[in-house]
Amino acid sequence: MFRKISLKLRNVYRILANSEKRLEDLYLNQGKILIELGRMKLSSKLQDYEFKIFSQWGEDGIIQRLINNIEIKNKTFIEFGVEDFYESNCRFLMMNNNWSGFVIDGSKENIDRLKNSDMYWKYDLKAITAFITKTNINELLRKSDFDPDLGILSIDLDGVDYWIFESIEYYNARILILEYNSILGKERSITVPYQNDFIRTAKHYSNLYYGCSLPALIHLATKKGYQLVGCSSAGGNAFFVRNDLLNEKIVPINLEEGYILTKTRESRDEIGKLTYLRGDRRLELIKGMNVINVLSGEVEKL
Fold it and tell me: Nearest-CA neighbor of 61 among 24, 27, 31?
């Protein structure tokens, strides 16, 4: 009896695995079609090339537009804040274009789940568990064993992203994907203060107090030799390209052209329940919280 149940369970697992594989193949084929359709477009606006396969929004399409129009010496990416990597900026890039990757997440459970997946042995991907700080970021990145001339660096920590990006010294990626908190607006170059153990929900129950404004990212990226070339239409990720790689197809844009206020409604109340606030009501919820003006170094209030 137990043997029959065991055989039935194995068959169920096999069917589920085959179904997942077929679905994954379908997604990849769909992505290839969308890439070819993108090649026919004449727009210089990155948002016009958006499509989603494994990314959260339209980042998959934007990445394909960038890598097909600038010179990439090393097909390598580093991405952190990936959870289990199933929904991420660089998964489609790895699977469709066979790039090598190095990913970091603070949850051992997430990384274990990734390491137990088929994609971990099918592709050249290395994953580690670590809580990233200003003092350990460069040491962690060296564990990738990648050449400093990376293809892509993607940072999405929902926390002290500005300070981590500022602290990176060794790597000089060709493309940067950096998350900004659009709720902080476009008027001030501000970020949450640095804290080694910053956790978004713990700092403010609303889940809205994190990250930095787009002007702050532009300020820092410019200092490091990059120009803003676009933002996702969902209003969260900004794309920067190294100055020496800009061309007639990949052109810089200004803050006004790039900034988008997100419509996502992820605010929460004191017990963690979603409240679905929209527009300026989200900023009102964190009004009075401390931020750092990155131009002056002064503490200000939201």
Answer: 31
